[in-house]
Structure formats: C-alpha cells, structure tokens
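User:
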Amino acid sequence: MITNASPITYETVARTTPAGEKAERVTPLNLAWPQDMYSLSHVAVPFPLNDSPVRPRADGEEPLRY
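Assistant: Predicted structure:
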C-alpha cells in the first residue's frame, strides 16, 4: 500500500507484506503527494464475477443503479 510516511507529512512510503511473511516492510519512495490534492483513498479488492455489482448482465436485464 502506498501511504503517507507519517500523519504529518506528504512524503510517501510503500508498505508491503510478502506472501508467507508476517513482518511489514516499509520502503521510502522519495515522492510526496501534491499539497493541493485530497484523496479519499482506494483499495482494490477482488470480487467474484457472480457478485451482483460486477456480474455480467443478461440481455434485457436492467443495470444496477447505486
């Protein structure tokens, strides 16, 4: 996950936990978030294809509206 290095800085780090390990690795990225940008953040989570928000629609079936 790419996140702030601390709550009071715009500097970023990558936080990773390799498969089979329990310890988190923190790698400084030497990059900073733009100060005029606000992010609500995003985490990609895989969903199965039969999950209603992502499953293919049958012909004539109304799309889901959120």
